[in-house]
Amino acid sequence: TANMLVNDGQHRRAAIEKALKLRPELGDETIPIVIFLDAGLKRSQQMFADLNRYAVRPARSLNILYDYRDPLSALVRKVIQRVYVFDDMVELGKTSISNRSTKLFTLSCLHQATQELLNGHDISDKGIAELVTDFWSEIAKVIPDWERAKNNEISSAYLRKNYIHAHGVTLHALGIMGAALINQSPKNWRTKLKQLKKIKWERSNTKLWEGRTMIAGRLSKAINHVRLTANVLKKTVGVKLTKEERALEKRFAQGE
Description:
Layout: H1 10-22, H2 41-53, H3 60-66, H4 71-82, E1 90-91, E2 105-106, H5 107-117, H6 128-142, H7 145-150, H8 156-162, H9 168-184, H10 189-193, H11 206-209, E3 214-215, E4 218-219, H12 223-237, H13 243-253
Parallel strand pairs: 1-2
Antiparallel strand pairs: 3-4
Helix pairs in contact: 3-5, 4-5, 5-9, 9-12, 12-13
Protein name: DNA sulfur modification protein DndB
Pfam family, one: DndB
């Protein structure tokens, strides 16, 4: 006989024990384990430290995909199925998109943008899923390139290379703008949203996007750049900037 010490996975072991009590038939299942010869307390402690130091965290998109307790994660998964341009166009397993990928956005990015959109709303409120679905569907109407990519009329890679609207920073900014617009104009926000058709989304439009959404031609996800991008969207649809947003615009104009 030998004593067994669980160096990593204590909570999972306890969960398995509890699961077996509820469903004994799971006892026929198998899981892989790694067994090491006990070389003393210091060795065990070092092994524990190494296991935690070098543990690979799953991609945030995967956490959202498999999180059935978080109502926002469940809502976003539902929205992906309901919004035509998102269905089969959202990267579900990774937090970044390769140059050759046909996907437009990551799940984690859409989750973040939707979280901003619902700022101040109770996710459990009746009609929230319909509101979010409606908002992103309306956005797709004013950014027709998304549907063109969905219909294989243009590649997602081409959009990423030439436009800012195919990047997470803009999706995040759209969520921020959307929250303010719906709050300010709950009855006619759809009409005001059409003003976004006027925007020149090309990355070559450096007069508008350089320093705001891009730094030296590269898209920036930094929060100030997200907010500066959202400010352009807000002003376009007629939403008044907050005191903090006006201060940010002033610093931007001064080159700070």
